[in-house]
């Protein structure tokens, strides 16, 4: 177990051990061990001490709790029958005392409840402290420090090409995204070009600059953006500036309330935590109080059982119910989003445009306690103001999740006739190991408006949401599940009277039978579209393949069979395909082949129905520009690394798996890194030639999201050689002669073996050799010839010159 006390003592133990030995030697001269062998708080009396021990005496003692060493040596003083210890040392060994000045001397007999014994022969201090005096051992989760990202500069181009021919018409589209990244964040521009059909030309999608700070967990965005909000508000597209909390830059930070388990151990013990009878934590601890903070790996309700087993084998168990969800924030944590700009309307339509009037939006989330999280939201426009509050509460932190919100809006637009209105929502959720339920209800008055309502063409028929009710429940049945959902909504249409409720019911069932067969079935009924159902059987095959057959029926129609046979493309690269067909609308079919490689991903196929036949092709990938290199890759969805070794065909590891080999220039692009996380990249030494030298075999790349990092592994190709040294008469030097090697900053002696041979591990950059023979000093220069091939070589060298020694 990682013990903070033990880690702190490592820096002090060496120095203090030396001091302890010195004081032990001095103490043996001043304290007569025959007079006493140990002193406790009841034995430090003048009549038990020799005269020499009455004066102040410095001691360095190893601290024990009972028979267990704390791993620390404390500085103590023996003064007039009393034992004093520096307050800072007491804190370090885990005692809680009132003194805050670390340099203050504390008499141990003044600490209420503390018993101790000073053992002279072993120079140790044995303590017996109640739980109230011991520091609580912090177990389990601790907030990690922010990651240190390296923001290298580069350019990333993503592309996606799609072409199709159907019913005598052909069309093509090219989607592109350009991302410049570096020290000051990233600048991204995305768009799509189309040809054929009615839509011809280029359409820009999003353009924005963004910068994230992992220390403050902030993200700034300027340009096209999506506003923040809560489950009871509606985000909108805007163009402007945004400042928001971004927990994605700290993916190892747990933001939800972490259950806390307190306890105390009288002896060294083992702590185990079971959640729903599954072991989730196991650690050995010292005696004393402890607190365990850990995140149970469940979602919803569960039973946590804490088991403490001491050194004597005695076991104590404590059980408590808990509820884990991802909507609450831990106490003290906040989440927010502030944005201001202009609305972007009809983004998915044909006249994507920006409004002129400025708007603003603000959202706030605050963890108040383990059970309650507060929510607030506000919107402001030229003719609209809105404010709302809400909250998420877990009763007793075990009885599910209650959510509620209330918002008020006021519109001053002329056509709105100065209308105002309310929106309120109420919901409850319970997720258990076997049963789950989720119920939500929302109501809006006729005059309620938000920024999302402004994103519409008011000349068209309007549908204003008036009421919505949703209920979902599911039940685990053996190796399957049964779920039912109900949705009911009512709209205002054309600003007239509210319409009747429109409801949808659906019932689904899934079941695994045996090791391979999986069955799924569903029934649905909608007031507008009618009813129907489907039944599907699927069986996984070997080599990433599976087959699925089923049937579908809609209201008023006949049964429509359908089938699919597919082999999934391996993620590491390879080929895949699928065949599918059915009897809907008179019959249809499709045959597709796809591939995923190092440089792109592509698929092509044909499809047909009873009246026509067509074909299509699609390809996508990325192109990165770093270190003045332009390198193609398959699609890069998050971060990547460009590895450089300076040598070709070097095997590169990504998370301990061989990803690929460097090209002839020594470069390899790894496209699957995770932004804001430590990604392990290394070189596989087992596949390197014997004459290849690597300075380091492993590095951690920590790029920002949607960015790249340049990772360099310095490598060199050595030229080992056995050199036969000759004297000025071309005779081999006698064995035992002493040679001196001069190479770069290296100067060392070399023994000369039989036949005048010496061994050098590398002469690729040349080497100078000096040999003294009697009264002569001969100089040699070793370098590979132009014809030398990589690998081991042999050379015979005659001296370039010999100098007489004075």
Q: What keywords describe this structure?
A:
806 residues; mainly beta; Ubiquitin-like (UB roll); Immunoglobulin-like; 24-stranded antiparallel beta barrel; globular; disordered N terminus
The termini sit apart by 67 Å
What proportion of the residues form beta strands (DSSP E)? over 45%
Please state the overall shape, judged from the principal axes of the Cα atoms: globular
Radius of gyration: 38 Å
Summarize the structure in short:
The chain is mostly beta strands and 806 residues long. Among the domains are: 4-135, Ubiquitin-like (UB roll) (Roll); 260-324, Outer membrane usher protein (Immunoglobulin-like); 461-559, no CATH class; 721-804, PapC, C-terminal domain (Immunoglobulin-like), CATH 2.60.40.2070. It is 4% helix and 56% strand.
Report on this structure:
This protein has 806 residues and is mostly beta strands. Among the domains are: 4-135, Roll (Ubiquitin-like (UB roll)), CATH 3.10.20; 260-324, Immunoglobulin-like; 461-559, no CATH class; 721-804, Sandwich (Immunoglobulin-like), CATH 2.60.40.2070. It is 4% helix and 56% strand. The protein contains 2 helices and 56 strands. The strands form 9 sheets. It has a 24-stranded antiparallel β-barrel. A 7-stranded mixed β-sheet has the order 1-6-7-2-3-4-5. The protein has a 5-stranded antiparallel β-sheet with strand order 51-50-53-54-56, with no helix packed on it. The longest helix is centred in the first third of the chain and has 27 residues, at 4-30.
């Amino acid at each position: 177990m990682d013990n903070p006390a033990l880690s702190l003592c490592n820096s002090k133990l060496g120095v203090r051990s030396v001091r302890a030995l010195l004081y032990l030697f001095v103490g043996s001269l001043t304290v007569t061990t025959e007079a006493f062998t140990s002193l406790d708080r009841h034995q430090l009396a003048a009549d038990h001490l020799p005269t020499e021990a009455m004066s102040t005496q410095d001691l360095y003692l190893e601290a024990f709790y009972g028979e267990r060493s704390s791993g620390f040596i404390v500085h103590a003083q023996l003064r007039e029958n009393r034992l004093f210890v520096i307050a800072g040392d007491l804190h370090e060994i885990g005692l809680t005392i009132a003194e805050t000045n670390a340099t203050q001397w504390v008499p141990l007999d003044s600490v209420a409840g503390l018993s101790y014994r000073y053992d002279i022969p072993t120079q140790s201090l044995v303590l017996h402290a109640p739980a109230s005096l011991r520091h609580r051992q912090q177990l389990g989760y601790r907030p990690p420090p922010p990651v240190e990202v390296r923001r290298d500069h580069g350019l990333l181009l993503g592309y996606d090409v799609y072409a199709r021919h159907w019913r005598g018409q052909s069309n093509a589209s090219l989607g592109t995204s350009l991302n410049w990244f570096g020290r000051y964040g990233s600048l991204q521009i995305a768009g799509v070009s189309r040809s054929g059909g009615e839509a011809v030309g280029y359409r820009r999608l999003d353009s924005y600059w963004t910068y994230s700070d992992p220390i403050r967990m902030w993200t700034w965005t300027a340009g096209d953006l999506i506003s923040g909000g809560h489950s009871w508000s509606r985000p909108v597209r805007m163009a402007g500036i945004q400042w928001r909390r971004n927990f994605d830059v700290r993916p190892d930070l747990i933001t939800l309330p972490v259950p806390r388990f307190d306890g105390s151990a009288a002896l060294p013990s083992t702590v185990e935590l079971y959640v729903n009878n599954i072991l989730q934590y196991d650690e050995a601890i010292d005696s004393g109080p402890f607190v365990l903070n850990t995140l149970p790996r469940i979602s919803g309700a569960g039973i946590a059982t804490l088991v403490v087993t001491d050194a004597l084998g005695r076991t104590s168990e404590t059980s408590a119910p808990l509820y884990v969800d991802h909507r609450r924030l831990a106490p003290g944590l906040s989440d927010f989003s502030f944005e201001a700009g202009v609305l972007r309307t009809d983004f998915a339509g044909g006249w994507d445009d920006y409004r002129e009037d400025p708007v603003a939006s603000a959202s706030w989330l605050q963890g108040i306690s383990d059970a309650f999280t507060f929510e607030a939201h506000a919107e402001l426009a030229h003719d609209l103001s809105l404010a709302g509050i809400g909250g998420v509460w877990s009763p007793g932190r075990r009885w599910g999740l209650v959510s509620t919100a209330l918002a008020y809006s006021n519109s001053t637009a002329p056509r709105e006739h100065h209308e105002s209105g309310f929106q309120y929502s109420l919901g409850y959720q319970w997720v258990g190991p076997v049963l789950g339920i989720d119920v939500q209800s929302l109501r809006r008055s006729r005059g309620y408006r938000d920024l999302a309502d402004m994103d519409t063409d008011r000349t068209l028929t309007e549908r204003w949401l008036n009421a919505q009710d949703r209920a979902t429940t599911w039940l685990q049945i053996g190796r399957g599940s049964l779920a039912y959902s109900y949705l009911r909504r009512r709209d205002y249409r054309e600003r007239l009277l509210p319409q009747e409720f429109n409801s949808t019911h659906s019932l689904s069932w899934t079941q695994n039978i045996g090791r391979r067969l999986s069955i799924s079935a569903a029934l649905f009924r909608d007031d507008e579209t009618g009813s129907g159902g489907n039944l599907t059987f699927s069986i996984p095959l070997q080599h990433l393949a599976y087959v699925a057959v089923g049937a579908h029926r809609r209201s008023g129609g006949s049964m429509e069979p359908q089938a699919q046979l597919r082999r999934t493309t391996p993620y590491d690269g390879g080929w895949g395909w699928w065949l599918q067909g059915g009897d809907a609308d008179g019959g249809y079919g499709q045959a597709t082949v796809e591939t995923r490689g190092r440089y792109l991903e592509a698929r092509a196929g044909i499809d047909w129905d009873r009246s026509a036949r067509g074909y299509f092709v699609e390809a996508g990938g990325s192109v990165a520009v770093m270190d003045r290199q332009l390198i193609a890759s398959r699609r890069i969805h998050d971060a990547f690394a460009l590895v450089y070794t300076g040598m070709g065909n070097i095997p590169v590891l990504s998370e301990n798996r061989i990803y690929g080999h460097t090209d002839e220039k020594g470069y390899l692009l790894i496209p699957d890194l995770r932004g804001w996380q430590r990604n392990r990249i290394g070189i596989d030494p087992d596949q390197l030639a014997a004459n290849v030298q690597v300075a380091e075999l492993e590095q951690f790349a920590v790029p920002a999201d949607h960015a790249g990092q340049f990772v360099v592994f310095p490598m060199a190709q050595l030229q080992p050689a056995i050199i036969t040294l000759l004297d000025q008469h071309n005779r081999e030097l006698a064995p035992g002669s002493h040679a001196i090697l001069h190479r770069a900053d290296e100067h060392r002696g070399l023994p000369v073996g039989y036949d005048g041979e010496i061994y050098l591990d590398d002469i690729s950059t040349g080497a100078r050799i000096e040999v003294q023979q009697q009264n002569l000093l001969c100089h040699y220069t070793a370098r590979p010839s132009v014809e030398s091939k990589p690998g081991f070589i042999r050379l015979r060298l005659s001296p370039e010159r010999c100098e007489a020694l004075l």
